[in-house]
Amino acid sequence: MSFDLNTKSLLDENYCVILIQNSSTIFVFWKFSDYKNYQFEKGFYKKDITIKLLDENNNCVVDIPVEWNKARLYVALPRSLNSVRVEIYAENSNSREKLSSYGPLKISYMKETKKDYIKIK
Amino acid sequence: MNSKVNYIMLLHAHLPYINHLDSNYVEENWYFENVVESYIPFLRMIERLSNDGINPNITVSLSPTLCYMMENEFIEKKLKNYIERRISLIESEISVNKDERILNILELYHKNAMDALEFINKYSSDIITPFKLYQNQGLVEIITTPATYPIIPLLVNKETIDAQITLSANDYKERFLKKLNGIYLSECAYDERVEVYLNKNSIRYFFVDDFAIDLNKDSKYTHYKTENGISFFVLDYDISKFIIGEDSYLSNPVYREFYKDIGYEKDIDYISKFTLSKERIPTGIKYHRITDINKPIDDKEIYDINMAFKRAESDSVDFLNKISSKINSYKTDPVVVTCFNMEIFGHRWFEGIHFLESFFRNARANRNPVQFITPSIYLGNNSGSPVLNPYLSSSSDNGFFDKWLNEKNDFIYPYVYELTKKYIGIINKFTNSSVNAETDRALKQLTREILLMQSSDWATLITYDTHKDYSIFRIEKHYNNALKIINDLNSGKISVEFIRKLESENFVFNSIDWKNFATKSVF
Predict the structure, then answer these.
(1) What distance in Å separates the CA atoms of residue B175 and residue B511, rounded to the nearest whole number?
(2) Residues B385, B427: one domain?
């Protein structure tokens, strides 16, 4: 095998996952089922999906269009979030369909202390 | 006013599990170098201090993957062979060098290598035994890390957080015949999800970096309890920076230069006879001092042992004074906590073991207010402590996880996630049925492969563009091994030969009760 984010998923399901990279950025990755991939490839949906981030009150705080097969995205977080949930939507000419969601993931912010030295590894 | 200041020195030792039966990989040398240059000199130091009635009360975290290498008979044989080849190289260098200054250095290297050989002969190459011995004598307190050193906040599935903590705790009890009290979470990476598994395994304490607390509000203590009743200690970077900071003691011009090694300089055919590698790799034989950190590597002066060791002694006095000066920085019964990689002392910082020994001897000789203590002793004396929940954090330079998750290595995570989900699925499938011995073996080995793939070392090495190919090779190998086992389990056709081969190479965790990691309905 070769490591390629576009290789077929082992799971044959729609999923998305959030990992926290740092206090201002999350990493979102996703894959779709074989059937959904087929539908995207055949143009049943628009090629861009929408990634929505929702805060603890379920308000949408970020709404980003991205190609469905990009499979990953780093997203800048608004500063005030205490938790984050991600939802992925696909659209066609008639409707919008939620494909997957993940979270909420609690985010505990901390000070932005910059250390005045670099650690020796 | 306090009359004494407690000091917890945590020395952390970890290496990824590397054991290849088929051929030699240069990455195996990481273990051999550290045994010869750090672990054995450290153990010898404990022995000398103990003989002189000095108890350093050092806390040592040994990762399970490192412990398994320390106990592996095949690796033990390779270790002995490595030391013998190092001795041959030193003797060859002695025969060709005429410079008295170089010969002095070689004489010291020869003594150290012979000492390492004698040590492993004494303990039949099993480095764990002396650690156990010194723990039983009350000279060190040994703790553990998560099983294969993953970054806990980057583990998506709680079942594998459970496996990483529970297997490690069980393994510790089997190996050290003691209850596990504390854990060093890999790279101090804290995520509140871990606490349920620390409690499940009766782990009393862990460590966090100062990123985990608000220093403006919470800096009057370095020991707290979470709301779940687990103690944690906050590392003190005001003190640590003298050893791991950019302008630390280690950059002093008189200390030995780490990066100038004859392995990179002498004729490759000559060096290969001793390293058994066609690649240029370090040999541990270095003749120069730092001189000036800004000078090019070819412009360094010859190392002077006496000058360097005297400097280590004076730096140790300075370090002791720095800790003493913290006596009134914290409220009642102050405790200063630092964590250093054990590999710094001896391997990275050649004079580091001499520094440590001088440090403990000076504290004793000068009746210093610094009192060496382990976390368990401290907690035994201090039942009350403020309640505080740490922030999500790690000990990386920005306190977060960029080092293990960035555009160079993020391809790992979907693979780990999908495979782990498949693993949990198959564990759930078999958990409520009785399984035959073959299936049980396959599920145990599957657990090992999944955990080894989760090791944070691979992501770190890819980030730093060092041993990147090896890291990707390891991720792929564990991924493919696990996937084959899953497919075999699903088809009911388990290849015993395949499992046996994997067991002989990737054997970590003797006892794996994989049913423990099935999805629970309530947590």
Answers:
(1) 11
(2) no
Indicate whether B346 and B244 sit together in one domain.
yes
Q: B128-135 long-range contacts, Cβ below 8 Å, gap at least 24?
A: B128/B67, B128/B70, B128/B71, B128/B175, B130/B43, B130/B47, B131/B43, B131/B60, B131/B62, B132/B175, B132/B176, B132/B177, B134/B43, B134/B46, B134/B47, B134/B50, B135/B176, B135/B178
Domain end: B399, B425, B440, which one? B399
The amino acid present at B256, given as its one-letter code, is R
Residue A114: helix, strand or coil by DSSP?
coil
**Same domain, yes or no: B263 and B375:** yes
The percent of residues above 70 in pLDDT, for chain B, comes to 97
Contacts of B392 in chain A (CB under 8 A): 20, 106-108, 110
Task: Please check the confidence at residue B522 and state whether its pLDDT lies above 50.
Answer: no
Pair B133, B173: CB distance under 8 Å: no
For residues A21 and B403, give the distance between their C-alpha atoms in angstroms, rounded to a whole number.
Answer: 9
How high is the pLDDT of residue A109? 65
Q: Which strands form A48-54's sheet, in the order they lie side by side?
A: A60-67, A48-54, A83-91, A96-106
- Report the Cα–Cα distance between both ends of chain B, in Å, rounded: 45
Q: What is the torsion angle, in degrees rounded to the nearest 10, for the CA atoms of residue B129, residue B132, residue B133 and residue B137?
A: 170
C-beta separation of B324 from B369 below 8 A: yes
Instruction: Classify residue A46 as left (phi > 0), alpha (psi -120 to 50) or beta.
Output: beta
Q: Is the peptide bond before A104 cis (omega within 30 degrees of 0)?
A: yes
Whole-number average pLDDT of chain B: 94
Q: What is the largest CA-CA distance in chain A?
A: 57
Is B414–A11 a contact, with Cβ atoms under 8 angstroms apart? Answer: no
Of A1, A20, A114, the CB nearest to B392: A20
First to last CA, chain A: 32
Which of A72, A118, A121 is closest, CB to CB, to B410?
A72
Structural domain harbouring B365: 5-144+180-399
Chain B residues 375-414 with CB within 8 Å of chain A: 389, 391-393, 395, 397-402, 405-407, 410-414
The answer to whether A83 and A106 are in contact (CB under 8 A) is: yes
Q: How confident is the model at residue A121 (pLDDT cuts 50, 70, 90)?
A: very low
Q: Which domains does chain A have, with CATH numbers?
A: 10-106 (2.60.40.10)
CA-derived radius of gyration, chain B: 23
Q: Per the domain annotation, does B268 fall within a domain?
A: yes
